[in-house]
Design brief:
The protein has 103 residues and is an alpha+beta fold. It is built from two helices and seven strands; from the N terminus they run βββαβββαβ.
Length: 103
């Protein structure tokens, strides 16, 4: 997978997120707010519906094409982490992971 675009690196805790408070939800990492605000300020033109922005993400040895979403309640972008990645990289809710994204 090619890594074109602007590269961002950060540490983040893995969280379980449910916007409805009901069963179901997503495993996510939140981008640091300062980083997210800078991305939104300079690259908002790349957002699609609902604040969605296509990216390439990497955690550990796993890299995948995905998207981040801007969440107005948390005031940052959220990066959902697929079950396949969680299992392969062996982390749980509360784990701190090194994340690289390319936009």
């Amino acid at each position: 997978m090619e890594n074109n675009g602007i590269k961002y690196e950060f540490l983040a805790k893995v969280l379980f997120y449910s916007s409805t408070g009901k069963m179901g939800g997503w495993w996510i990492v939140c981008l640091p707010k300062e980083m997210a605000h800078g991305i939104r300020e300079s690259l908002k033109c790349l957002e699609e519906g609902w604040g969605r922005m296509k990216i390439t993400a990497k955690i550990g040895g796993s890299q995948w094409a995905t998207a981040i979403w801007f969440d107005t309640k948390l005031d940052t972008y959220l990066l959902p982490v697929k079950a396949e990645i969680r299992k392969k990289e062996k982390f749980e809710t509360g784990s701190e992971v090194e994340v690289t994204i390319w936009i």
